[in-house]
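4.2 Preliminary Data

To establish feasibility before requesting continued support, the project team ran the inverse folding procedure on a target of 133 residues. The structure was first converted into the token representation described in Section 3, and no sequence information of any kind was made available to the design step. The complete token record follows.
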């Protein structure tokens, strides 16, 4: 039986950050989908049903926290784990265990620039946890 590759949706309006992160996930064996804004995020999440979403918080038109609220309200996307990566968090406080609370739900968060080994480990754990629920 062929094992399906894990997939991730990267949502970031910074093309350099998105390209670097895409390369890390591709090299780790993931199928990667890209989105630049809320509309593309929601469309891609519905179309591809990624195993996880890695999302920035700050966008020119919108806020990643609002994107997550919309994703979690939609039956098609509500169970996809979301992890945040953002400049809005202080890098010196990032020990790999930061969380954001949105509508009483907790989300893992990482400060940029990203610590990729911790990020990859967290994404794997979030995917496995969501598959076991």
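Position-by-position output of the design step:
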């Amino acid at each position: 039986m062929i094992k399906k590759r894990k997939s991730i949706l990267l949502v970031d309006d910074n093309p350099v950050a998105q390209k670097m992160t895409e390369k890390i996930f591709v090299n780790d064996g993931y199928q990667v989908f890209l989105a630049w804004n809320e509309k593309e995020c929601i469309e891609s999440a519905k179309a591809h049903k990624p195993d996880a979403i890695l999302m920035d918080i700050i966008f020119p038109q919108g806020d990643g926290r609002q994107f997550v609220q919309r994703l979690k309200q939609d039956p098609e996307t509500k169970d996809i784990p979301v992890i945040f990566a953002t400049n809005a968090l202080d890098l010196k406080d990032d020990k790999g265990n930061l969380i954001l609370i949105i509508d009483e739900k907790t989300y893992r968060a990482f400060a940029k620039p990203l610590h990729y080994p911790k990020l990859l480990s967290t994404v794997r754990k979030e995917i496995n946890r969501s598959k076991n629920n």
